[in-house]
């Protein structure tokens, strides 16, 4: 892993790839992920590039792969990831894969079409058999009686135009949802000149499209007259009914039914053979498709990179440019030599001078990835800018723990994160698709430190599920107070609240060894004491954190060679910040160390207000001799630093621009061809935050210096910093507010749930039975409210303190990541 404190050195390289070995070279680079290629054909349309035909062939194959994948999923099969590491196939294998894929797709389409056709025919035969079954009986007018013929009516109609009418039949099947509407419409349209019989099939039939079992309604309609028959046929067509021929004679129906059953058996045998052949084809697809998809994806990626290369004048090699880490240049040279050895001409790579800001490369591991992600979410750092991530590893969990300090809650969070860390190598944990789980799993090491630091601050606050613990003996003695103050029974009866006076000898034995004395949990002024302590602690931590951010800016100025910023920016910033708010921290620490508990306590807030008013309060004693002079001097020096911060850098840049002599134009880039491992292509001083450092030094014309723009930029920076020192210091008071809120929520939850449960159990005498649901409710509420909701709130506030109050003191975050060409995403 490279340095975490600053991004690695990145060089712009030029690759000369022989045409015959270009594909192999780029493929090997994709396996290693060393180079981020630049598009040298940005002005060329995507349809006019050299390898656009190969890219289209790969895209057509991907479409075919999508069809095959859907067919496999439709059959209820799963596609397993390929085993081992697959390399990009040679270009000559593309035709073979395409032919085999087309053949498989064609076979699948044919077999699937035959299967659908056979299922539809079988479904029709089954419906026909159900219609001809014994579910329907012929109406009386159509059945023979007393030896008469079928067509002999019981009553001879009188002569007239309807004397030749006979009974006809329409039989078929309809979906159950449409049966009632069909029957109603038939009756209304035919005005009762029909007899309809609807029966539900005894067994559900398999749907030929979905394959799911479904019931059908069979019907038999007898009617008189041709016009009525035409109406019936039109209505059944509108309802998409399956209409079948109906034989009036019983013997004919039985014979037809036997033929239908025989045909159904034959179709089922053919359908079984078809499905077995289909399963064989799907088995081949299931075996061949996963490796083909990976290989074609890699091949397409290689051709897309080759489309970004330019062609030499002789058309014998391809020219590519890209960013590569300086430490990876030997490996890059070796890979190109190995890949182009079979072509007879070795690929060449050399560094070229950069005119653009290089990308940022910071290598991370499983521990530092989550902390680097917090920083990158604010903005990717500029090239070789100081990286806040190493310091965030400590400061972020600590500031979170200040707001979340509780031994019990921190221990639960620590154990949850520890379980994820111990199970991180299990495949089931890695491949989990739940989005919330993946979020927690990705930040498992962050949660681990957050829980550990919360346990630490919980011991400082002496809180474990809002209860104080007595690890060491208390520094306060009630016995000494009782013996020396003469507390009597009458005094104790009249005074429910007792005061421990530290001025009485033996009452205050000394400070508690670690954290808050547990006796404060019994005091009525417990909240007031913790408010004062946590508020002052928040100011101290905030000023220290901001000062550390300003100091980190010194490393940026030194690294980029901007020495004038040390005197004209960093020094005024530290003077303003420490002269005002650093002095406030000094007053807090001085009062803690040197003002006795028995002496009158001066108000630091009044002193700080009088500091800006250049006045004094008679009722507020001084903390040390000469305090007024020191305060006045600090205010004057802090205010004097503002014009230096505002005008220093613009005036210096203007003076530097005037005295700068023109550069000689004859200097060329010969020194850049000296060797691949030379680092003389560009100076890191060219990528600072100065307005005058807007490009690669030594290889471009000077930009026009505009004093008004520099003044405007510096004025915005000055106003933002000076006002930010005030607002940011106040913003750190959220540490006090969130810590107080967390402690009070814990206290309320304990008082309203566990304390009531313990009282109830004591009264009823069944403590064990009562405490089971009480403790379950307490555990659920603790996890839901105090761990999840309060934890998320503290996390967001700690995130804001790092992004706004800390990182804006030195971190620009206006860079972009190095995104090397790699096949790792394709394999995932």
Automatic annotation (TrEMBL):
Gene Ontology CC annotation, any one: apical plasma membrane
**Topology relative to the membrane:** Multi-pass membrane protein
Q: Which UniProt keywords apply?
A: Hydrogen ion transport, Ion transport, Membrane, Transmembrane, Transmembrane helix, Transport
The GO terms describing molecular function are: ATPase binding; proton-transporting ATPase activity, rotational mechanism
Please give the chief subcellular localization of this protein.
membrane
Membrane-crossing ranges are 398-423, 444-461, 537-555, 576-609, 629-653, 764-789
- Indicate whether Transmembrane helix appears among the record's keywords: yes
Listed InterPro entries: V-ATPase_116kDa_su (IPR002490), V-type_ATPase_116kDa_su_euka (IPR026028)
**One GO BP:** retina development in camera-type eye
Domain of life, source organism: Eukaryota
Q: Where is the signal peptide?
A: none
> Which parts of this chain are annotated as the region Disordered?
663-697
Where is this chain's protein located in or outside the cell? Membrane
**PANTHER family under this entry?**
V-TYPE PROTON ATPASE 116 KDA SUBUNIT A 3, VACUOLAR PROTON ATPASES
Role of this protein? Essential component of the vacuolar proton pump (V-ATPase), a multimeric enzyme that catalyzes the translocation of protons across the membranes. Required for assembly and activity of the V-ATPase.
Q: Which family does it belong to?
A: Belongs to the V-ATPase 116 kDa subunit family.
Report what the protein is called.
Answer: V-type proton ATPase subunit a
Q: Which gene encodes it?
A: TCIRG1
């Amino acid at each position: 892993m490279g340095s975490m404190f600053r991004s690695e050195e990145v060089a712009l390289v030029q690759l000369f790839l022989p045409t015959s070995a270009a594909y192999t070279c780029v493929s090997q680079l994709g396996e290693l992920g060393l180079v981020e290629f630049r598009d040298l054909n940005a002005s060329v349309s995507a349809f006019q590039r050299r390898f656009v035909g190969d890219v289209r062939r790969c895209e057509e194959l991907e479409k075919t792969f999508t069809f095959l994948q859907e067919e496999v999923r439709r059959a209820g099969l799963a596609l397993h990831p390929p085993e081992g590491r697959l390399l990009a196939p040679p270009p000559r294998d593309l035709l073979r894969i395409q032919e085999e894929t087309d053949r498989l797709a064609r076979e699948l389409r044919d077999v699937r079409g035959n299967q659908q056709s056979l299922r539809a025919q079988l479904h029709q035969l089954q419906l026909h058999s159900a219609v001809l079954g014994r579910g329907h009986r012929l109406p009386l007018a159509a059945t023979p009686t007393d030896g008469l013929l079928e067509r002999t009516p019981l009553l001879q109609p009188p002569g007239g135009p309807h004397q030749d009418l006979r009974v006809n039949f329409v039989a078929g099947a309809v979906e159950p949802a449409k049966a009632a509407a069909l029957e109603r419409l038939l009756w209304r349209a035919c005005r009762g000149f029909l007899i309809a019989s609807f029966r539900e099939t005894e067994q559900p039939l398999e749907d030929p499209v979905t394959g799911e079992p479904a019931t059908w309604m069979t019907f038999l309609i007898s009617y008189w007259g041709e016009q009525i028959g035409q109406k019936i046929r039109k209505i059944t067509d509108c309802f998409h009914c399956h209409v079948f021929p109906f034989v009036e004679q019983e013997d004919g129906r039985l014979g037809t039914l036997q033929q239908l059953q025989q045909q159904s058996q034959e179709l089922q045998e053919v359908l079984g053979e078809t499905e077995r052949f289909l399963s064989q084809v799907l088995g081949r697809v299931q075996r061949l498709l996963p490796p083909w998809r990976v290989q074609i994806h890699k091949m397409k990626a290689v051709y897309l990179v080759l489309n970004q290369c330019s062609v030499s004048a002789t058309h014998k090699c391809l020219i590519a440019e890209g960013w590569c880490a300086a430490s990876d240049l030997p490996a890059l040279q070796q890979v190109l030599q190995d890949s182009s050895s079979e072509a007879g001409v070795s690929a060449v790579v050399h560094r070229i001078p950069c005119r653009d800001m290089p990308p940022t490369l910071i290598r991370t591991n499983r521990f530092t990835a989550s902390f680097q992600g917090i920083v990158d979410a604010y903005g990717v750092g500029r090239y070789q800018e100081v990286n806040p991530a190493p310091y965030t590893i400590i400061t972020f969990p600590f500031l979170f723990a200040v707001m979340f300090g509780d031994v019990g809650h921190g221990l639960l969070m620590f154990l949850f994160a520890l379980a994820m860390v111990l199970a991180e190598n299990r495949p089931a944990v890695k491949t989990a698709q739940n989005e919330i789980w993946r979020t927690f799993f990705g930040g498992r090491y962050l949660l681990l430190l957050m829980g550990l630091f919360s346990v630490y601050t919980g011991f400082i606050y002496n809180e474990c599920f809002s209860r104080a613990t007595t690890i060491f003996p208390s520094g306060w003695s009630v016995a000494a107070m009782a013996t020396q103050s003469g507390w009597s029974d009458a005094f104790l009866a009249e005074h429910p609240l007792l005061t421990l006076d530290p001025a009485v000898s033996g009452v205050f034995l000394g400070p508690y060894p670690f954290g808050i004395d547990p006796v404060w949990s019994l005091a009525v002024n417990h909240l007031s004491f913790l408010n004062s302590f946590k508020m002052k602690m928040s100011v101290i931590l905030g000023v220290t954190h901001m000062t550390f951010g300003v100091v980190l800016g010194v490393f940026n100025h030194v690294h980029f060679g901007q020495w004038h910023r040390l005197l004209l920016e960093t020094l005024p910033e530290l003077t303003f910040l420490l002269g005002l708010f650093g002095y406030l921290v000094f007053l807090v620490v001085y009062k803690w160390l040197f003002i006795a508990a028995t002496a009158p306590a001066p108000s630091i807030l009044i002193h700080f207000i009088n500091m800006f008013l250049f006045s004094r309060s008679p009722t507020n004693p001084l903390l040390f001799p000469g305090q007024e002079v020191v305060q006045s001097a600090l205010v004057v020096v802090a205010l004097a630093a503002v014009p230096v911060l505002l005008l220093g850098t613009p005036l210096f840049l203007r003076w530097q621009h005037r005295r700068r002599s023109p550069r000689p134009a004859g200097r060329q880039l010969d020194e850049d061809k000296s060797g691949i491992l030379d680092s003389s292509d560009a100076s890191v001083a060219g990528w600072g935050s100065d307005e005058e450092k807007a490009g690669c030094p030594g290889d471009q014309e000077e930009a026009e210096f505009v004093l008004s723009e520099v003044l405007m930029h510096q004025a915005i920076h000055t106003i933002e910093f000076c006002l930010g020192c005030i607002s940011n210091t106040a913003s750190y008071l959220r540490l006090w507010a969130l810590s107080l809120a967390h402690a009070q929520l814990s206290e309320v939850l304990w008082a309203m749930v566990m304390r009531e449960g313990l009282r109830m159990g004591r009264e009823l005498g069944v403590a064990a039975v009562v405490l089971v649901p009480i403790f379950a409710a307490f555990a659920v509420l603790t996890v839901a409210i105090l761990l999840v909701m309060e934890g998320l709130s503290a996390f967001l506030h700690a995130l804001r303190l790092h992004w706004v109050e800390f990182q804006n003191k030195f971190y620009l975050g206006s860079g972009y990541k190095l995104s090397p060409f790699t096949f790792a995403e394709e394999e995932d």
